[in-house]
Amino acid sequence: MVGPTGFVGSVVLGELERRRRDDAGGRDLILRAVSRREPGGIDEWCPVDLTVPETVRGVCEGVDVLLHLAASLSSDEERCAAVNIEGTRALMADASRYGVRRIVHLSTTAVYGPGPHRGIAVDGVPPAPVSPASRTRLVAEGYALAAGATVLRPALILGPGDEWVVPTLTRLLTAVPTLWDGGRALLSLVHVVDLARLITCFALNDGGPRARIFHAGHPEPVRCGDLLTTLARCGELPEVTGDSSLRQCVARLRASGAAVSERQFSLVARDHWYDSRETWEAAGCEPGRGPLARLTDSAR
User: Fold this and answer.
1) Which of 4, 58, 242, 248 is least enclosed, having the fewest CB within 10 Å?
2) Which residues contact 78 (CB under 8 A, 6 or more apart)?
3) Mean pLDDT, residues 39-58 taken together
4) HEC readout, the chain
5) From the centroid of its chain, how far is CA 81?
């Protein structure tokens, strides 16, 4: 596994450990971590820096399944290119060199660009990424697909360790403390625990699809207002009162001087949802009750 210490990777590692412990299809799992620092709960560790492609060579020797869950989300184009493009290129070349049977590669729906997007299928609109991270991750997908990978594109990921969704919502509500357009926006969400289950099912599904892209959200989109209400009940956000139009919200955001962009506001205040129904069936994985139920359960 590449990226076992990250937000998603650490939960996937826990899911693989659980399966091995419970013998849920994971009895013979030998876990090899590919990362700069050594995580716990693994059998083998390969110290690798994806910005130095030479360090990648040989990490896939003897590997049956490769999970590539690492990426740079930096605003620096060179950093993103080094990790997301050159690192992925080197990793996929190594996987091909050693005949890795199955590859799962984590990407993002941010490759589609600004939106709004309403229930689109995979590549239902042409990719138009706007950030260094999403531009380079789109390029990385090409190398992964060429190596036969299953590529997963989640949108917003919730759960313990989240450093983007709740912090961004907090900043936005500080700048614009009202219900944005009545909270009508429909969003593709997935809880990190369910995403980890999905990734693990694809990894262990011998007859699963290869060289294909899937959206990786819960099949049912979530209203922005319901997300804000649930997070407030969990003590993660302040309660929201009032209602303002998108135009009024954008004007208040601009006037606030907040360190959050209109692009980030748009991602949660306008429709951004992607058809993920086929994904869970292809993986042989139950999607569960949904991300809001997960948040409520974890808050109890």
Assistant:
1) 242
2) none
3) 93
4) CECCCCHHHHHHHHHHHHHHHHCCCCCCCCCEEEECCCCCCCCEEEECCCCCHHHHCCCCCCCCEEEECCCCCCCCHHHHHHHHHHHHHHHHHHHHHCCCCEEEEECCHHHHCCCCEEEECCCCCCCCCCCHHHHHHHHHHHHHHHCCCEEEECCEEECCCCCCHHHHHHHHHHHCCCEEHHHCCEECEEEHHHHHHHHHHHHHCCCCCCCEEEECCCCCCEEHHHHHHHHHHCCCCCCCCCEECHHHHHHHHHHHCCCCCHHHHHHHHCCEEECCHHHHHHHCCCCCCCHHHHHHHHHC
5) 18
Tell me the pLDDT band of 136, cut-offs 50, 70 and 90: very high
In the prediction, which pLDDT does 257 show? 92
Residue 164 · residue 250 · CB < 8 Å: no
Cα(70)–Cα(280) distance, rounded to whole angstroms?
Answer: 22
Tokens of residue 286, six digits: 């139950």
Q: Please, what is the Cα angle at 137 between 131 and 140, to 5 degrees? A: 150
Q: What is the mean pLDDT of residues 270-289?
A: 96
Length of the chain in residues, anyone? 300
CA angle in degrees (0–180, nearest 5) for 201-89-195:
25
**Distances from the Cα of 90 to the Cαs of 45, 51, 127, 297, in angstroms?**
18, 10, 24, 41
Residues 150/210, Cβ–Cβ less than 8 Å: yes
Contacts of 105 (CB under 8 A, 6+ apart): 68, 88, 140, 141, 144, 149, 150, 151, 152
**Does residue 296 carry a pLDDT above 70?**
yes
